[in-house]
Amino acid sequence: MALKPNLFHTQAQKLPSFARPPVTSLRSPKFFMASTLSSGSKEVENLKKPFMPPREVHLQVTHSMPPQKIEIFKSLEDWADQNILVHLKPVEKCWQPQDFLPDPASDGFYEQVKELRERAKEIPDDYFVVLVGDMVTEEALPTYQTMLNTLDGVRDETGASPTSWAIWTRAWTAEENRHGDLLNKYLYLCGRVDMKQIEKTIQYLIGSGMDPRTENNPYLGFIYTSFQERATFISHGNTARHAKEHGDLKLAQMCGIIAADEKRHETAYTKIVEKLFEIDPDGTVLAFADMMRKKISMPAHLMYDGHDDNLFEHFSAVAQRLGVYTARDYADIMEFLVGRWKVEDLTGLSGEGRKAQEYICGLPPRIRRLEERAQGRAKEGPSIPFSWLFDRQVKL
Ligand SMILES: [Fe+2]
Ligand SMILES: [Fe+2]
């Protein structure tokens, strides 16, 4: 998973409201209230508060799936064993970060590092902003495993539960763990970025957590992960393409191999949702519409480096400008999922279900139209310093 820049977030001023991040004001004190960061004497504040408070500012809804539906997931145990676990790769057949990195035990280590650094010199700063943002997103993996384990009926109840759902979640996490590892080690060796600032960003992000508003509801959770896996597939695929264009075939290979994992994960998660559509079309179409109304918040949208309150927006703006992950991709993913789950062809829905179906099917062209209009109005972005790059200026 991991995620990925949310362009809508980025350009909150330029993009239509549906495309903005979920920032709803709190109405009732009984709900958990998360604070936002205030600017100003932040350094002082941070010293007083060694851990960042959660920065989410919307209502936190829990356990929205009717309890009886937990049975659906129990009854799908064997199905998941035969249809989902097959998308995991045996560890012995998996690539490892070391396959793509200089071998520290070899005599040629220094030479290989030198070559890696020479190649990195040809790559522009804006590319590094995106690659660092992608790496930070991947490195917040504990948050994503936590998120999956919030879901009723599929969570890993013990930490080593033998259910198919729990096996999937642990093995998925183990596969994902290689993504941050590989990118982290590459960035460490390349010498182009401020590792300490990046490491602080990772620590802040894991401490912040995330609330993708999946409400302990596996319908919402698997729709969310389907979306995210495809988003990361697109994003890593594009960083691979750009690395190739900058003449770094080895880096292209690294990003490409990560993209291939994301694709496999997307296949698994979309298959789960496809099955839910088969068993419970009404419940699933309502969940899909609900998730899309709330917008898919990006896993790393609470990113912070101790300096820049809008770090995620800035990273996303660079990703948008380079075409690594754009507002158009959001519409494309949406359209892909509508087609993948054959939402248009659903029959026998309730009145509410039909409304949700209509809403979903009309959404991709609507997003696209609004996005095109917003792009037409978009102005040239300024250049700002990124702590990840020793405060070098990068154009947004
Ligand atoms: Fe993934
Ligand atoms: Fe990943």
From TrEMBL:
<dbReference type="InterPro" id="IPR005067">
    <property type="entry name" value="Fatty_acid_desaturase-2"/>
</dbReference>
<keyword id="KW-0276">Fatty acid metabolism</keyword>
<dbReference type="GO" id="GO:0045300">
    <property type="term" value="F:stearoyl-[ACP] desaturase activity"/>
</dbReference>
<keyword id="KW-0150">Chloroplast</keyword>
<keyword id="KW-0443">Lipid metabolism</keyword>
<feature type="binding site">
    <location>
        <position position="229"/>
    </location>
    <ligand>
        <name>Fe cation 2</name>
    </ligand>
</feature>
<keyword id="KW-0479">Metal-binding</keyword>
<dbReference type="GO" id="GO:0006633">
    <property type="term" value="P:fatty acid biosynthetic process"/>
</dbReference>
<keyword id="KW-0275">Fatty acid biosynthesis</keyword>
<dbReference type="GO" id="GO:0006952">
    <property type="term" value="P:defense response"/>
</dbReference>
<feature type="binding site">
    <location>
        <position position="176"/>
    </location>
    <ligand>
        <name>Fe cation 1</name>
    </ligand>
</feature>
<dbReference type="GO" id="GO:0046872">
    <property type="term" value="F:metal ion binding"/>
</dbReference>
<comment type="subunit">
    <text>Homodimer.</text>
</comment>
<feature type="binding site">
    <location>
        <position position="176"/>
    </location>
    <ligand>
        <name>Fe cation 2</name>
    </ligand>
</feature>
<keyword id="KW-0560">Oxidoreductase</keyword>
<feature type="binding site">
    <location>
        <position position="262"/>
    </location>
    <ligand>
        <name>Fe cation 2</name>
    </ligand>
</feature>
<dbReference type="Pfam" id="PF03405">
    <property type="entry name" value="FA_desaturase_2"/>
</dbReference>
<feature type="binding site">
    <location>
        <position position="265"/>
    </location>
    <ligand>
        <name>Fe cation 2</name>
    </ligand>
</feature>
<keyword id="KW-0444">Lipid biosynthesis</keyword>
<keyword id="KW-0408">Iron</keyword>
<feature type="binding site">
    <location>
        <position position="138"/>
    </location>
    <ligand>
        <name>Fe cation 1</name>
    </ligand>
</feature>
<dbReference type="GO" id="GO:0004768">
    <property type="term" value="F:stearoyl-CoA 9-desaturase activity"/>
</dbReference>
<dbReference type="GO" id="GO:0009570">
    <property type="term" value="C:chloroplast stroma"/>
</dbReference>
<protein>
    <recommendedName>
        <fullName>Acyl-[acyl-carrier-protein] desaturase</fullName>
        <ecNumber>1.14.19.-</ecNumber>
    </recommendedName>
</protein>
<comment type="similarity">
    <text>Belongs to the fatty acid desaturase type 2 family.</text>
</comment>
<keyword id="KW-0809">Transit peptide</keyword>
<keyword id="KW-0934">Plastid</keyword>
<dbReference type="InterPro" id="IPR005803">
    <property type="entry name" value="FADS-2_CS"/>
</dbReference>
<feature type="binding site">
    <location>
        <position position="262"/>
    </location>
    <ligand>
        <name>Fe cation 1</name>
    </ligand>
</feature>
<comment type="pathway">
    <text>Lipid metabolism; fatty acid metabolism.</text>
</comment>
<dbReference type="InterPro" id="IPR009078">
    <property type="entry name" value="Ferritin-like_SF"/>
</dbReference>
<dbReference type="InterPro" id="IPR012348">
    <property type="entry name" value="RNR-like"/>
</dbReference>
<comment type="function">
    <text>Introduction of a cis double bond between carbons of the acyl chain.</text>
</comment>
<feature type="binding site">
    <location>
        <position position="179"/>
    </location>
    <ligand>
        <name>Fe cation 1</name>
    </ligand>
</feature>
